[in-house]
């Protein structure tokens, strides 16, 4: 009987596909889920496409969206193995720790929204791999250090919000020359220093307010 139970257990676990396993490592990184947002994330499913907060296209995960659910935990590196991932929205939770470098292996990412958490550390250089990134919102966290020079490789960025962090140093050379698709820019409430780059005048698509206050 014991052997049969083991065999059945193995078969059950083995039925979940690779993307399901990657997301299950995300579930295991969550220490507190007071609203039960991940309750239907089960090993017994063939894929994660029916899981709360997950959107698939042709059975591949394209979106992870679980905002404002009081999730407490860290971001695992396995998220980067979701190669068709386009959108991540984990805003207004209680995530802590740093951004894993491996996250940026999901190079088709178009939107990364993590504002309103307790994330810290620097933004990895690997962010420059995200050639399709249009929306980057890391505001209201505890990120620090200088912005990576690779950020200017994200030439499709339309919205960049890094406000209310502890970033230091100057803006990368070529900021205004390369990020010409920017429509929204908010760098307020940080510790940036140096001059406002002269090439900021190239950001002709900016709309509304450019916030460099505080």
UniProtKB/TrEMBL annotation:
This is Leucine-rich repeat-containing N-terminal plant-type domain-containing protein. InterPro entries: DNA_repair-toleration, Leu-rich_rpt, LRR_dom_sf, LRR_N_plant-typ. Coiled coil: none annotated. GO terms for cellular component: membrane. Keywords: ATP-binding, Glycoprotein, Leucine-rich repeat, Membrane, Nucleotide-binding, Receptor, Repeat, Signal, Transmembrane, Transmembrane helix. GO terms for molecular function: ATP binding. The keyword Transmembrane helix applies. Its main location: membrane. Residues 16-56 form the Leucine-rich repeat-containing N-terminal plant-type domain. It is a single-pass type I membrane protein. PANTHER family: DNA DAMAGE-REPAIR/TOLERATION PROTEIN DRT100, L DOMAIN-LIKE PROTEIN. It is found in: Membrane.
